[in-house]
Amino acid sequence: MAELWKGAPAASALTEQLIPRAQALRERGIVPTLAIIRVGERPEDLSYERGAMKRCEKVGIAVRQFLLTAVSSQADLMDVIEEVNRDQSIHGCLLFRPLPRHMDEQAACAALDPAKDVDGITPGSLAAVFAGSGAGYPPCTAQACLELLDHYGYELKGKRAVVVGRSLVIGKPASMLLLGRHATVTICHTRTADLPAECRRADVLIAAAGKAGVVGASCLSPGQVVIDVGINAGEEGNLVGDVDFAAAEPVVRAITPVPGGVGAVTTSVLARHVIEAAEKAAGI
User: Fold this and answer.
1) pLDDT tens digit string along 221-239?
2) Backbone angles phi, psi at 23, to 5 degrees
């Protein structure tokens, strides 16, 4: 039976580290502040927004919401981004994606001030992740995968890691972060020839393809640690991951649940990035 690597303990530990840092900023007259830009009302965005706001409240981070309708124009969005860029009291910005199809997401991401990009969406932030320079902030969900591994004491050096998914939000940056920890990394996706064979060779398997059950019994082997990033609607309307949990639990060493795994840690990483951005702005 696999160990269940829940996100709550890791998230709580990280939150406790951030509270005194937020308090120290406030004692200097600096209120660490996150701007949330949301276009429309996608259920997954609303869920994450609620979680992020609760986490920020626990840490001592103020939140300002900039809400646009799903039919807002590109110009409306760019105006909001410019407002966030100009406002020196805002230290970080979370822009929910994907944007509606009529909007240019690439242009919107590029317009954000890199110093306020706490979720790794600007070209400069992504370049820093791929260069391993330590500048900027990686995407929060990708970083949350490593935070979970760290919290549960898993040493990545020399391990074989397989990442299923190649998005700029999770798959590719997570692969670079793993590589920076001296893991040997293979990036797979739904069109990989013999995906199960590639997955079975992994010591650490990160599933981030966005497809329910893409990692099934044939992909698993004893001793693996499985980080399931997927959040999908199950046949019964419940949330399920990219991994067939019932097939994985009797086989692997450890697995993250969905829900209750990576997502909880993601909001804590977001809060840490906001605190770090506020500290940099203050010259601390």
Assistant:
1) 999 999 999 988 777 778 8
2) -65, -40
Taking the C-alpha atoms of residue 217 and residue 247, their distance in angstroms, rounded to an integer, is 5
Q: Which domains does the chain have, with CATH numbers?
A: 29-113 (3.40.50.10860), 140-263 (3.40.50.720)
| Distance (Å, whole) CA 39 – CA 133 | 32
User: Are the C-beta atoms of 211 and 190 separated by less than 8 Å?
Assistant: yes
Joined tokens for residue 231: 């959040």
Whether residue 216 is predicted with pLDDT greater than 80 in this model: the reply is: yes
Peptide bond into 43 cis (omega under 30): no
Q: Measured at the alpha carbon of residue 16, what is the angle toward residues 95 and 278, in degrees to the nearest 5?
A: 45
pTM (two decimals): 0.94
pLDDT at 264: 87
> What 3-state DSSP class applies to 171?
helix
High-pLDDT (> 70) share of the chain, %: 100
* Token couple for 62: 């103020």
